[in-house]
Amino acid sequence: MTGSEPTASVVAESTANKATPPVRLAKSASIIGAATLTSRLLGLVRDQLLAYLFGAKDVMDAFNVAVRIPNLMRDLFAEGVMSAAFVPTFMNRLTTRSKQAAWHLGTQLLNALILSTGTIVAIGIFFAEPLTGLIAGGFTSVPQKFELTVQLTRLTLPFLTFVAVAAAVMGMLNSLNRFFIPALSPAMYNVGIIIGCVLLVPLMPTLGLDPIFAVAFGALLGAMGQVLLQLPALYREGYRHHLNLNPSDPGLRKILRLMGPGTFAGAGVQINLLVNMILATAQGSGAVSWLGYAFRIMYLPIGLFGVSIATATLPIISRHAARREFESISDVVSQALRLMLMVNLPATFGLIALAEPIVSLIFERGNFTAADSSATAAALLFYAPGLVGYSAVRIAVPCFYALGNSLVPAYISMGAVILNVSLNIFLVELMGYRGLALGTSVTALVNAVTLLAFLRYRLNGLDLRRVLLVFTKISAASTVMAISAWSTNELLANHWPGLTLSVEILRLAISIIFGITVLIIVSRLLRIEELDKAWHQLLTRIRRRD
Asked: What are phi and psi for residue 179, nearest 5 degrees?
């Protein structure tokens, strides 16, 4: 536990009833964002260690494929659809009945998850070789690489059960307005891998194993840590686990009904990434890793802002849905979208403008070469446009679950998967692995626009005019920001051509600071209301502290 967790919970709980939805949403998102920032920074340290130790070579490709299989199943059956289906049902029982009734539902779900995911893990371990062949058929031309991938897959599959349980516990805590510790729990995965890299890598050769196995052991340790970190907070709220499972429980059946047709709705992005991986395995050594490193850099603002806003939004929407307050839901969704655009559009343009210096600064050392930096930056350039799409999907999909409708996002997501496969098969022939990143971004944007159109119809309005106005203004300001940041970086590169770490950090820091300054100035000139509100809240907090 951390010293700031109780304070975060008190803030969230004390404002739950008396704050307006936009203020409550912003505060909850900021609490989640602080925890998520910790996790993402640890994720960067994790990726830096992996890049230093293993670069973008065959062993790193093998590990990326191995963890993709449990990660895909996690998003299909755990964090994605299960969270979106469980939180509204849990919140409804908490609102209309009692806390004890909600705990009973939580117990039923946890037992069902342990049983179902345990079965999937056992089957996956038994059929690991054909499963790996299906996903990484391109590796079969290098027998040692394929066999290593099979072994790593068997070792990492139990990861699924731990993260499924962690997702359910997170859902219960979020429903009780406890955001910090649940948002911090994914950091344990990064901590586990860091421990594996630092402490276990030197031990593997003495056991006759490739050093990459240390990373797999670390991933399992981190998955266990996600559960163990959250359990004390859940226990303090009054939860007590019981070993019983009643398949006829109405709440559990409702969750399963929402999950059934919506299995693909919350995991469309992950399925598309899996398609990318299948196609990338035939693009030569390093392609899988380049795409993986690029996606994780791009996913930093999604995890920090998109997921934080979506997580804070879901309990609020679920409360309004339980009371059939559709106009309030529309207001909250519109507020969430505008808040997301305020941070993710500048991040998109910034990643495009500074892709290569960012990748070089983060990864280029040890076994990660300058050629790897250029290849990863090229993938990041085409992944970045999809950032807003990914974040909007994170906000939109849970809204349908809160409204008791999982069919619409399921159909849209399946359509997006078909579009992604078609685009990527075409683009990979034209652009190689870079085409896979571009196809994924286009699909994410189409998916988001379609979901929001249907959600607007379902809610009889979504104030999209205001959302589009913010989108236009922020896009204009971000364009000027990106040009300024890129020009500054190029100018500094000509005057400071040295490649030492301190010079790289200074060049990039000056470029980013100048770009953000330009963004603020242009945003003020364009009179972006959301920026004024954020600035006003910041000044108010400073005055209160003084």
From this structure: -110, -30
